[in-house]
Amino acid sequence: MTERAIDRAITPQAVSDGAGVRLRRSIATPQLDHLDPFLLFDHFGSEDPDDYVAGFPMHPHRGIETVTYMLDGSVEHRDSLGNSGTIGAGDIQWMTAGSGILHEEMPRVGPRRLDGFQIWVNLPARLKMSRPRYQDVPAARIPEITRPDGARIRVVAGEMEGTAGAVREIEADPQYLDVALPAGGSFELPVPRDHTALLYVFEGQVEVGPPGKAARPVEAPRLLVLGKGDLLRARAAGGAARFLLLSARPLHEPIARYGPFVMNTEGEIREALAELRAGTFIKA
Ligand code: FE
Predict the structure, then answer these.
(1) Ligand 1: distance of its center to the CA of 19 in Å?
(2) pLDDT over 70 for what percent of the chain?
(3) Is the pLDDT reported for residue 214 higher than 70?
(4) What are phi and psi of 124, to 5 degrees?
(5) pLDDT of 247-256, one tens digit each?
(6) Are 30 and 24 in contact (CB under 8 A)?
(7) CA of residue 186 to ligand 1 center, whole Å
(8) How far does residue 104's CA lie from ligand 1's centre (Å)?
């Protein structure tokens, strides 16, 4: 087996999006436009409601999947298909926008912090105009592995040591794990060789790579783009550490993106905008 090493370490950029939500962005920046099939990686976290309360009022999506995973606080959502609900602490929402939805995502002012992630995963050309769908999984239904050393691994999607993730039947065949390691704890997982893989460190410091040859510990917050290989090894350096591990099959297709639309050609983007103006964006 070949172990994956760190290819690039990306420092998240402070950006403002929606109606004025301040967040940390690691993918969809001048530094890293995309990491096929990942199109965006946002980390929001603040104790100050002014940083997030404006939220993301009604907006469209087409051609992608948006994946929202909350650690603390909650986001209320409602959409053009008639769905509505709350994504609370520990919950995941995997939304396949397909041919198009209009939705709003409004963080609720809570007693504590707002903390969470949104990533966008690309859809292949043949599924870009597919029927929109959701997988909403409450925290209690996300399998959690607790090891004797105190490590805790939530299997959001994919598989870990025979435990299947909560989110199923996603085209990109993703792995999405939330890994909390105690001081000195280590983590090992086979990752399909042809998959793009990344690790987002959001607490503590993490070492990645073969023992003895690992790169220097990387401190949160940092997105690590992993190089080729079929095995991932990570260790908590210093104190406890927590990270997301994501992998998925790349598409190798042309990308035309404009805000919340990601298609294969500029013509398809113009079509989406024209349909939005004409009121024919949402398909039955
Ligand atoms: Fe959205």
Answers:
(1) 12
(2) 99
(3) no
(4) -65, 160
(5) 999 999 999 9
(6) no
(7) 35
(8) 7
Could you tell me the pLDDT band of residue 209, with boundaries at 50, 70 and 90?
confident
| Distance from Cα 40 to the centre of ligand 1, integer Å | 12
| Residue 81 neighbours by CB under 8 Å, 6+ apart | 101, 132
pLDDT of residue 215: 72
- Read off the tokens for 127: 């599924």
pLDDT at residue number 165: 96
As its CATH architecture, domain 6-278 has Sandwich (2.60)
Count the neighbouring beta carbons within 10 Å of the beta carbon of residue 44.
Answer: 25
Contact between 93 and 87 (Cβ < 8 Å): yes
* Nearest-5° Cα angle at 74, 276 to 117: 70
Averaged pLDDT, 12-30: 96
- pTM of the predicted structure, to 2 decimals: 0.96
- How would you write the chain as a 3-class SS string? CCECCEEEEECCEEEEECCCEEEEEEECCCCCCCECCEEEEEEEEECCHHHCCCCEEEEEEECEEEEEEEEECEEEEEECCCCEEEECCCCEEEEECCCCEEEEEEEECCCCCEEEEEEEEECCHHHCCCCCEEEEECHHHCCEEECCCCCEEEEEECEECCEECCECCCCCCCEEEEEEECCCCEEEEECCCCCEEEEEEEEEEEEECCCCCCCCCEECCEEEEECCCCEEEEEEEEEEEEEEEEEECCCCCCCEEECCEEECCHHHHHHHHHHHHHCCCCCC
- How far, in Å, is the centroid of ligand 1 from the Cα of 61? 7
